[in-house]
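Z., the sequence and structure:
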Amino acid sequence: GDTAWSAIDGYFEFEAASAGVQLNIKVEKLDYVTYQQAIVLEVGENSFNHALVPSVGNLVGYITDGYTGASIDSAIVILDGDTAWTAVDGYFEFESASAGDQFNIKVEKTYYITHQEVIVLEVGDNDYNLALSPNHGDLMGYVTDFASGIPLDTALVIVDGDTMETGLDGYYAFENIPVGEQLSMKVVRTHYADYLGFVELEMGENVANISLSANPGVLKGFIRDAITTTLLDSVNVILDGDTVMTAIDGYYEFENVMSGDQYALRAQKSGYVNYNEWILIEAGINVMDIDLVSSE
């Protein structure tokens, strides 16, 4: 029932205890296994030196990327409710956990599959190194013209709602996209037909090169006398430098005009006032009938 506390050097002392009598001695210290036994003191000084066995273990380790092997910083490591975050080198540690007990360990990080399991700690340092499996991938590629292979800049690449514009070299790149899911993909650019498709990413780098087909327009129509409605042949029709001449039925046509832009349209015939107009060419068929006014 008498109690003493060891000093900084571990020394303790009891004085004037009964010699020849069996006494129970008990030594306890936080984080150490409690020790007790029965002893019999002799007359005079009795020495009792004892090495306590630690009852705790430390858990230390590194968290890395299971695909690249790179260290993962800021991963959350949870040991039965206690939390540690990995350092820039992926290192974490827990100190003074009860040795011999079962612990639930959980490791989680954005863009990685959460890992959890049950472990038992031993006395001293316990190494726990874990490679987390990514649940994301990167998507990249080039957008080019189908016919010529020329890179297309300013194309909008849309993947599951996220949008990126291609550079001068036609290149685009998305990072940290979920893997194993079918995602919608759309590529849009002026003068070209939209690309619509689906992609399903794997871990790491995924390449999707897209070729867009030009989406031209056609401009056609008839040219008539504004008063008599007579169809006029031999009219020079000029569209931004390209020229055609109307046939006997007054018909003209421009094919493969790049859509989405405005063009200067002119019509000229001797004896009539020149016609000038700006028009927007859309994909597909564009009809523009022109009535020329007599200059006489």
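The mean pLDDT is 92. The radius of gyration is 42 Å.

Let me know what you think.
H.
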